[in-house]
Amino acid sequence: MQAGQATANDALWQEARQRMTARIRATMAMPLDGFPHYADPDSGKWVTSPDGFWTGGFWVGELWLAGGSGPEGREFRDAAEAWLRRLSVRVNSNSVFRAFLFFYGALPGAELANNAYARQIGIATARSLAGGFNPIAGVIPLGTDAEESHTVGNSDSNIDGLIASPILLWAARETGDGELKKIALSHAKRNAEFCVQTDGSVIQSVSFDPASGALTRRFTHKGIAPNSIWTRAQAWAMLGYSLSASLAPGERWLLDHADRVARWWMSHVPADRVAYWDFNAPRTPETKRDTSGTAIAAASLLRLAAVHPDRDQGAHCRRFAEETVRALVERHLRPSGILADGCFDPNNGTAVANELIWGDYFLYEALTGLSGGGRATLFPTGKS
Fold this sequence. Notes:
Layout: H1 3-28, E1 35-39, E2 46-49, H2 56-67, H3 74-87, H4 98-105, H5 107-112, H6 116-130, E3 156-158, H7 164-175, H8 178-195, E4 205-208, E5 215-219, H9 231-247, H10 252-268, H11 291-307, H12 311-332, E6 355-356, H13 357-370
Antiparallel strand pairs: 1-2, 1-6, 3-4, 4-5
Helix pairs in contact: 1-13, 2-3, 2-4, 2-13, 4-6, 6-7, 7-8, 7-9, 9-10, 9-11, 10-11, 11-12, 11-13
């Protein structure tokens, strides 16, 4: 990359991050009755979730990222800890998706701010998740309270729940508990067998026989069809395997899975880099994009680029991520710092062109890394 282009990119990343920080500050000032979930992109008014649903940790994570480790970020860090304490009643909820709540609600605080409470909650969540592990099936099932699942219980799994592996790997690193690592690796391996197809595409969900662990059904329940490649399923796989690869660098197969699902994304996403809500959806002017899934993919590609042993492939991932972030910033990030055009649940007509808190988080994480602010071990992005 030439010096002039690098300087222009740095200015774009910094300015976009400042816009998003202003949106975080504006949200902090609102009289919220719960965790920000999705918002009208014109008014900025949030629909909230009282207990954090599966999304509340992303709001807490944004606050940790905004706070960093310097004295100027104290107000954000104080708010992050307060919101984390409010979320902490969910540590033992019977849903694998509490891994989302506390990987993002707690770990950035432990890593960026050296916050003891955040570290405590992160470890407690990992131990709680490990308690639900099915050793016969080799996975942590969805659980009886799993949010937004087509089927719910101890005989179902999906790629969204892969996020349990990174929080377990982090806790194993922090505590030296080898059993946590063993469970994390089994969960990641089995999810690949269940959901990742031979070409690198991802089917969202499965049911299995809890007594034998045998697969009984594979299906995409949030996509346009049962066999379609739902955009966030592909992005969640990219996220889970790139995070796991960065936390368990000796397990090369994790990086191989991360690389395979990332290559599929890069080969199939539209040329303008912003995905439609489902890769099998017809591409018409009416078909919704999903900036949230696209932001997840961009952040995952940055992380993969930083740990990839093949310099050329790593550089390709980095360039693709930067092009994706630029597309999101230039076409979908409002002057107010709102990331518009997130598509939450088109099958039920819910928030199909909105600001989504997880989309905000992942674009903000990517911008934090690109602009030089992401120095925590869990968020490696490198610098070109």
